[in-house]
Amino acid sequence: LGCFQSQCLPGQAMDRSFVQAARPVAMSRRGNFAAGVTRTQRPEHFGVVLAASCAAASMTSLRKSRAKTACQAEIETTEKSVKRIYESDQDRKVRPYTPWDKKVPVERNLLEGNEAVDQMEQAPAQGSSPDESYYFKMTPDRKQIEVIIPVPDSVQKGQVIFRLGDDNLDIKRGPTLEVGYRVKIDEIGRTKDVLIMDGTILHPINRDESSWSLEDMAGVKIILVTLTRPYGLRKTNDTIANRVMIDERIEPQTWDAVLVEERKQELITNKAFMDIEYDGEPLGRLTYGLYGNAKQKTVNNFLGLCNGKYTDEEGNEKKAVWNYKGSSFISVKDQHLCHLGNPGLDTFAVKFSQQELEQILAAYQEGGNCDMRGIGPVPDDIRYSVGLCWGADLGLGFDLPLDNGEKIPKPRDWGKEVNYADYDEKRGTKVRLAELVERGQEAELVLFDERWNKGTTAWGGVMEDDGGKVVHKQRGMLSMDWDSVKDRIGSKFFILFKEFPQMDRNYSAFGELIEGDDVLTKIEEDYYDEPEKLVIADCGEILS
Questions:
Q1: φ and ψ at 324, to 5 degrees?
Q2: N vs C: which end of the chain shows fewer Cβ within 10 Å?
């Protein structure tokens, strides 16, 4: 005992002073833990205390040994992919158990808005400041904007200036940004700031993941600023395929510049107007500014459709095949846009004989999309497909039977193409066509001609886009309904109710609203559910 004390309490082994030692006075069992009360002991009682402590340690060791044995048994059971849970001696349950080392596959998807990001495609955002003092580009995954700022070779890390201001009150804009370097101006040590970037960031950014570094690029010293775009993660468990899907969604943004102050302003070369009526009552005038330098062909076509006449390549003035005057709005989607300029050439009624109706029915029974080319008066050598629409003898679908004997409850719109992907619509159309064939008479059907789904130009047909890109950067922008795959533009166009970066790839902006925002607000807020009552009463070019 003295030896033990000398090891535990050097220099105090034979001292009669008090020693703090644990002595259980009252023991109570709570689960797997023993709770006790301790008090100060004298050295002569140390042997008793030591024995009690050894006994407690022995009990602890025994418990650990039993727990280890239980864990080993559990591991052995796990390796057999079955876990047994014993609730009592008489009741036991067995359930499948997945070993811990079996990994569930994870599939990651990178999205910009609702579109998948193709990292092999060149990122669209790249450019420079107006004075070319810095350059910027978007990374291939579109998560970040990298700003490259050349600086003198003498600039050191401690001289770099990088200041991010507070979050902008405008949720569409980012914080203020100052980037540059500090230089000495005299021997006393006074310095001045040389700011290369000084303004408001065009879009919101993720502040915590934005940074800067001082680097060397091809022998040139640069400040590399990395701005991270906002993003979110969504995790879903696919229990059928036994996989985890993680969608990383980047907020859609148009980075045609880094700072708001340096955004390019397109030159307005022409002006046009449209007087709008609602249900025969005047609503007001919309005045547009058109970007003739950036989109010359598109602007000439739009002016021809407004004026009802155009000038051909030889300088001769000719009447337009169609114009906007008297046409109705196609649709109004609040907080998004309104759609105008449909001449109605994409839908037309045609009469078919009984034999031709049998051909149409046979095409449906084959399970295809029923392309009408080559049937009756429809030529078979046209490039685009011709489909069947609601209306005429086909009806509007409200009396077509479903599998359960009920009828399609909601009438379809006249001229709307039959949705072949909808089982009820397709089955009901087959039933109606069979009835028309059985009747043994000719029937009138409404067809949709894809050639005119974008409308018509002032001189007829469609045209290609001018090329180049004007971003949909603000409310009131004008944009042609452009088929970016087949490169076709006609007469259909949009007026935006907000900044719309998602449209930059697939549509062609060519102007902006310069007067009449109050009229546009009325259209958006009051008449979004009745677009057919909104009519272009008059339109034309403003010459000044």
A1: -70, -20
A2: C
In terms of pLDDT, which residue wins out, 248 or 381? Answer: 248
Residue type at 315?
G
> How large is the average pLDDT for residues 390-412?
71
pTM: 0.68
* CA gap 537, 534 in Å, rounded: 9
* pLDDT interval class at 23 (50, 70, 90): very low
Q: Which residues pair with 276 in a beta bridge?
A: 284, 536
Q: Is 221 helix (H, G, I), strand (E, B) or coil?
A: strand
**Closest to 471 measured CA to CA, from 201, 202, 264:** 264
Provide the terminal-to-terminal Cα distance of the chain, rounded to the nearest Å. 113
Give the pair of three-digit tokens for residue 465: 């886009």
Longest dimension (CA), the chain: 124
- Kindly report, residue by residue over 494-526, the tens digit of the pLDDT: 999 998 888 887 899 999 999 999 999 999 988
Closest of 169, 135, 165 to residue 257, by C-alpha = 135
Q: Which amino acid is at 472?
A: H
Report d(CA 297, CA 510) in Å as an integer. Answer: 10
